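*Target chain*
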Amino acid sequence: MSRLLIDIGSTYFKVSHDGGIEQFFRDFDKNIFDDLEKRCKSIVEQYNKEDIYICSSANGGLSTLIIGLTNSFSLKYAINTAFNSGINIIDTLLYPKIEEESTPTELIDVVIIVGV
């Protein structure tokens, strides 16, 4: 039998099985186990425990610096998109004030530049 791969993200459970990937929106009013069991129990029951692999991308994604043109539009939407993608935002900067900003001291994997 093939393997079942489960990624517990900050917004979704992503489940890879039978050559496909399904996403299940998390219920934050439940603990992770109960929520996973409710949404994926029928899938999990098809696999032996040694064929189930679980990881977490929640708050473990890419460390990112976001640079935007404005707070109210480009930066705001980039931050929301990044959080929904499981990205760890290290810092945000406004491009017009970039010379005034200090350099982030943490390791950054990705720099996202947004705006028109």
